[in-house]
């Protein structure tokens, strides 16, 4: 029987393991922590009964993607839930903007027809678009015309694309989603991640896993066991020599960690490319237990699953540029997850779990709780008095929990234009690491961060194709 070792049990490691096991490979997953799941775990971070998502909370690229359909995770208990409003962006004085599933409704409420013009075609053809977006860029797209339409928008600096909008609300709504890239909004390609997530919001929504992101991991683990695989926890692997021989090895690690694990077995040209891989700014997180939820002045934000906090397009552009230069702003961009808006069962005795993080410079050494709460208070006066419990994590805490988050970079690599196109190094097959049967399958490979599992799925499919050859 063909055998495989998978190092790391985050969503991509588990996706690779499930894909291989389903194909008849004898798979063992090795996880350094006591609990599998990586960034897709859920924990009672504040109060008993109040479940917080450890990192990833909403999963826009997971619905109906190739991995989730192939793994049939619904058969293993995974259910999705959608909020009424996919994401919202409060502004000062009670103003704001919101993204609904309907692109027409969103455009109409924004009083800005450019929203429909730019994003309507992408949303209508999202199934074909997403199939291309989640693959390495150095491949022929399945839908060349649709991908070209996407590229004309995605390749632009976000501040250039924003000029198409005539209202400040539309510009701010776009800024909030573009800022997911952790990049200055004036740089080439800074629209790419925002455009992708926007199209997903209108096509399939930004769902949560019912019961928390841990439900995704639980379903993957059940699928893995069903197909004959296993997980060994508490297994910290520093070298392939520590593992039994296997036909396939999957590394759900950062690129530089892969160089260390493989050592001289990795060709120097591959190792040199991986050593050049760059990481971006960091996140500093806070988990809040909020009685009654956040009292946003902009009422639609109370019904949104995700809320982008940062003010106008111009304000967000300034602070995103600051963090990439190593400067911590007093008014950081904050992403707020209100999972109970989609999954009411997440609230406990009217106490709602709120998971928020601020964009901060790489390695920022301080607790950002006060900065985050101050930003919330700006758009939701009185929220401070509703907080009944809280915990926080610095970038160093995040990296200690998950070494793939180097410097606190939760997207596992800078989203500069070159790395958007060629992460982790220029290659027609970015998953292969040189030695026969060894592959990188982490979020540092295409299509990047998220609990969508596609990096692991793509790497596993590459391994299976190589075996057939």
Automatic annotation (TrEMBL):
SUPFAM superfamilies named in the record: FAD/NAD(P)-binding domain
Pfam families named in the record: NAD_binding_8
Xref: InterPro entries: FAD/NAD-bd_sf
Protein name listed in UniProt: Phytoene dehydrogenase-like protein
Native organism: Enteractinococcus coprophilus
